[in-house]
Write a structure and sequence with these properties.
single chain; 180 residues; mainly beta; Ganglioside M2 Activator Protein, Chain: A; five-stranded antiparallel beta sheet; four-stranded antiparallel beta sheet; globular; GM2-AP_sf; MD-2-related lipid-recognition domain-containing protein; signal
Length: 180
């Protein structure tokens, strides 16, 4: 599966930022896939081989290729929503986090993830906007693991990352995680 370039990857990182090796909790990635609840417009994004893989307790890497088939600029938005989730019933509960920003703004404001992700990929430098169409490769980027505080609520969460154009969903990724 391929990603919407840097912003999507940044959003995915936020999805898994949830745990740290030295933290008192564990993060389990239950699923990571293209969001089938929206009609993914293949003329914008091809998710290719993008995968998230567990390396050790609370450590995950992002690896693979994806393609932006169009330039992505601030006319498009990136939405990251996190919901409580009933893993057994596969039902989402209340939203616990919502970030909705113009694509380039989302990428350019990220000082923690994107600069390190860019070093492990062929993605453009921050500040380049629009984000150019093309094929991008991420080579075993180890996700940042210092996002949640030690007292983060334990439970199941559903993370949805969506690329929007004129408020219409174009493509997205979804992940299910359990924090114990």
């Amino acid at each position: 599966m391929t990603s919407v370039s840097g912003l999507v990857v940044v959003g995915l990182m936020l999805l898994v930022y949830v745990a740290a090796e030295e933290k008192s909790y564990s993060l389990e990635l239950n699923s990571f896939d293209k969001n089938t609840k929206i009609e993914n417009d293949d003329s914008w994004v091809d998710w290719g081989t993008l995968r998230m893989k567990k390396v050790s307790r609370n450590q995950y890497t992002l690896d693979g290729e994806f393609e932006f088939k169009r330039n992505i600029g601030d006319e498009q938005k990136l939405s990251l929503q996190v919901f409580s989730y009933d893993e057994g019933a596969k039902q989402k509960g209340p939203m616990v986090m919502n970030v909705n920003k113009p694509f380039c703004e989302f990428v350019n404001e990220d000082v923690d993830t994107y600069p390190n992700l860019q070093k492990k990929s062929n993605m453009p430098e921050q500040g380049d906007c629009p984000f150019p169409k093309g094929k991008y490769t991420i080579d075993n980027y180890e996700l940042e693991t210092t996002f949640l505080p030690d007292d983060a609520p334990k439970g199941d969460y559903l993370l949805e990352l969506t690329l929007l154009d004129n408020e219409a969903s174009l493509s997205g990724l979804v992940a299910s995680v359990t924090l114990t």
